[in-house]
Amino acid sequence: MSFQAYLDTIERKTGKTPAELLAEAGARGYDAATKAGVVLQWLKDDYDLGRGHGMALFHVLKNGTTISDKHVGGTGAHRDDSTTLRVDGLANR
Q1: For a Cys-Cys bond, which of 12, 30, 37, 65 suits 85, CB 3.0-4.6 Å?
Q2: What are the φ and ψ backbone dihedral angles of 72, each rounded to 5 degrees?
Q3: Distances (CA, A) of 3 to 6, 27, 29
Q4: CA distance 86 to 81
Q5: Which residues contact 53 (CB under 8 A, 6 or more apart)?
Q6: Residue pair 36/47 in contact by the 8 Å Cβ criterion
């Protein structure tokens, strides 16, 4: 599954865009300095998200929407189309 696919699945599972979840995390006081386990527990408790999906969202919380170009292009299920992840929701594409 590509990085973007993880974020898209989070939206399908929760009914919230990644941007909305990131805003909710910020309202809870979570930021780049917050430990992953804290964010993962919140996502599990409130949204029943597993570790893989939680870590994808945590990565964006910690590092922003840019990913390494080593994940872009080529072939295979784990490749993304761009180094910029979309967090604005499926309806905006």
Answers
A1: 65
A2: -110, 140
A3: 5, 24, 25
A4: 11
A5: 6, 9, 10, 13, 43
A6: no
Whole-model pTM? 0.91
Apex 62 CA angle, 59 and 63, nearest 5 = 75
Sign of CA dihedral 81, 86, 90, 1: positive
Q: What's the token pair of residue 78?
A: 């784990």
Rounded to 5°, angle at Cα 14 from 26 and 10: 80
DSSP string of 59-84?
Answer: HHHHH-SB--GGGBSSSSTT-BS-SB
CA-atom Rg of the chain in angstroms: 13
Q: How far apart are CA 5 and CA 63, in angstroms?
A: 18
